[in-house]
Amino acid sequence: xxxxxxxxxxxxxxxxxxxxxxxxxxxxxxxxxxxxxxxxxxxxxxxxxxxxxxxxxxxxxxxxxxxxxxxxxxxxxxxxxxxxxxxxxxxxxxxxxxxxxxxxxxxxxxxxxxxxxxxxxxxxxxxxxxxxxxxxxxxxxxxxxxxxxxxxxxxxxxxxxxxxxxxxxxxxxxxxxxxxxxxxxxxxxxxxxxxxxxxxxxxxxxxxxxxxxxxxxxxxxxxxxxxxxxxxxxxxxxxxxxxxxxxxxxxxxxxxxxxxxxxxxxxxxxxxxxxxxxxxxxxxxxxxxxxxxxxxxxxxxxxxxxxxxxxxxxxxxxxxxxxxxxxxxxxxxxxxxxxxxxxxxxxxxxxxxxxxxxxxxxxxxxxxxxxxxxxxxxxxxxxxxxxxxxxxxxxxxxxxxxxxxxxxxxxxxxxxxxxxxxxxxxxxxxxxxxxxxxxxxxxxxxxxxxxxxxxxxxxxxxxxxxxxxxxxxxxxxxxxxxxxxxxxxxxxxxxxxxxxxxxxxxxxxxxxxxxxxxxxxxxxxxxxxxxxxxxxxxxxxxxxxxxxxxxxxxxxxxxxxxxxxxxxxxxxxxxxxxxxxxxxxxxxxxxxxxxxxxxxxxxxxxxxxxxxxxxxxxxxxxxxxxxxxxxxxxxxxxxxxxxxxxxxxxxxxxxxxxxxxxxxxxxxxxxxxxxxxxxxxxxxxxxxxxxxxxxxxxxxxxxxxxxxxxxxxxxxxxxxxxxxxxxxxxxx
Length: 732
Description:
alpha/beta; Leucine-rich repeat, LRR (right-handed beta-alpha superhelix); 24-stranded parallel sheet; 10% strand
């Protein structure tokens, strides 16, 4: 009898073992071959692709505490992994305990993300115990858990001795004044932490006082976020007192903190002496004109602040005047946001006068104010000579055609401004003509937004004529205007030769099939355009055919949006035929939460057949169409083998439980889809408890899908929703 020879990884020569590992995914090696035996550990550790595994992203899976234990066993001796994301995995306190045990021995991991994981005070204690001895972890995110004051105390105790952690995120953890006190006590001695995020907690004035006291001695913390708490004026005073002497904090965020003029006065007083703070965010408070005056006093002399956000703060013309007075002499501020206030023409004049002499401000945001024609004229006058402003946002004001004329005249000679946002300003054809005249000579503007105005075909012609010679504009947004087929033709004519424009939005315009034909003809030869948005444009099957013909030859378009039209099954067939050979389009939007394209089961079949051969499309949105169970089956069949699609939306389609079953069956084999949307705020998919269970069963075997939106506007009972969410938080 002949001797039977058996071989295994335990006995194979190393080079042969490497060749076997070549056939495995690195993640499979990580999960399955570590800690099998000492020899295999050695082989894996010396295998080059495994040595390159430094980042592992497992967010939005169903790992739970048990899976975390297996992962922790691997981490104890792993010598390559530096970044690990386990967010949204329901690991709980037990999972945190497993990770903590691994962190005691691990000497490589530098970043650990555990947000949204149902970790409470006990889990925080386990992690804190590990942090006392760990010498490598630098970034820890525990946001959106349930740590509370007690868990914060454990972490704070660990921070007293830890010498490596530089970033700690504890936002949305029900931390109150007591928890803030614990952290403050740790900060007095900690010499490593640079960033502390405490936004969305329950910290009041007392908690702010504790943190402020600690910052007097702390010499390392550079970024502190206390936004969305309730520190109010009194708490702001405590922080301000600290800023007088603190020499390390550079970024402070206090938005939505119920701060009024008195609180800002405290900050202003402190900033007279402070020489390190560069960014101050006090958005969405109640500062008003009086509070703005206090800030003005310090901006005159402060030499470090570069970014100031005063949006949504009840600031009117008087407040703008105060800020303008300061800007005349200020030499450091580069970004000023005043959006959503009540600044009118007078306030715009004050700001414009200041910009004549200011030589540092590069970004000014005055959207959602009350600036009219006069205010636009003031701002235009300053643009003629200003040599620093690169971004101006004036959307949602009332500048109209005459105001645009002033701005356009300034653009003729301005050589600095690169981004101009004029959306929602009642601009018509005359205003478009003024801008077109400017674009003929302007050589710096790259982004122009004219969304939601009243520009028609004549205005589109003016802009098109200008684009024939303009060589700098990259993005043009004309969505929400009154451009029809004729206007689309003018723009299409220029696209044939224009070599710089890459993104054009004509959404929500009545261009119809004829206008679409003109654009499609241009796309056949255009070699620069990458994105075109034609949603809500009265496009039917004929228009879709024109675009499909263009896609067969076009080599640059990567994104096409056609939602809210009427292309139907016939139009879907035309596009599907084009997709078989197209090698550049990555995103196709044929529906969204607001409307689809009357595509039914037959259209879904055409698209599914195309996806069998297409190897580039990664996003397909079919929301708000008429796809039922049969159409879902066609798409499911192709999902079994498709290797490129990562995002599929079928929201607001009547697929029902039967259609859901087909999709669930496909998910068992699919290895690329990361997002599946089966419901939205405007309508669901007639999915009940049975369909939801099909999906849940499929997810047990699928480790690729990260987000499954199915609970919006379907017929799934609250009991089943709660149960399935507990089992797998990828289901939403």
